[in-house]
Design goal:
By secondary structure, the protein is α/β, with parallel strands linked by helices. It has a four-stranded parallel β-sheet with strand order 1-2-3-4, with helices on both faces. The chain is 45% helix and 12% strand. Helix 7 links the parallel strand 3 and strand 4. The radius of gyration is 18 Å and the shape is globular.
Length: 196
């Protein structure tokens, strides 16, 4: 079947995207994105454009870099990602990283150290900006509640976001009324931001 230039036929674009994905054709993403532009609310299109979520926890009570240095958690993340990449056709230009609390702090460090791998990093309520050797150019989405009693918002507002900007990283800082939480609206917004 043939796909023309008519964006209105989102069903055909969506079907072509899925078919090409199955055959590991890199044009699959192009067709899925065109279908999403034509029908952004279609559940079928959003399913085709799907996201693989690899959800991991630290190997100890918190992430290794928060204790000392990158070590066993990096090995675990690398092994898990290698396993997923062996089973799925991954667009390596769209790999993102996210975390909450200590995981957000870890994501900020890992994303800066591996900016050529993780193009986008979402940090929900981070607490520290560890020094790392920056490699590549990730973009950062940071969401933090004004009333956070665990990791104060002022650290993000006055230290983390400005420091990233000084290092010339693009930063989108999202402030909200609330505590030490990941709000559903911020999760959704950061997921849309990942696939922009």
């Amino acid at each position: 079947f043939t796909i023309g230039r008519d964006e209105a036929d989102w069903v055909a674009l969506n079907n072509a995207a899925w078919s090409r994905y199955e055959s590991k054709d890199p044009k699959a993403l192009e067709y899925a994105e065109r279908a999403a532009q034509a029908a952004p609310q279609s559940a079928a299109v959003l399913d085709t454009l799907g996201v693989i979520l690899l959800s991991l926890d630290s190997r100890a009570y918190t992430w290794d870099r928060l204790i000392a240095r990158f070590d066993y958690d990096i090995s675990f993340i690398d092994s898990a990602f290698t396993s997923v990449a062996a089973r799925y056709n991954i667009d390596h230009d769209r790999i993102a990283l996210a975390g909450f609390s200590d995981g957000a702090t870890y994501a900020l460090a890992l994303g800066r150290a591996n900016g050529s791998i993780f193009r986008r990093v979402a940090a929900h309520a981070p607490g520290v900006l560890f020094p790392v050797r920056n490699h590549g150019r990730a973009s950062f989405y940071i969401a933090h509640g004004h009333q956070d009693p665990i990791l104060p918002f002022e650290i993000t507002q006055d230290i983390i976001a400005p420091s990233l900007r000084v290092m010339r990283f693009p930063v989108r800082l999202v402030e909200f009324d609330g505590g030490h939480v990941m709000r559903r609206i911020n999760i959704s917004e950061s997921m849309r931001w990942f696939i922009e």
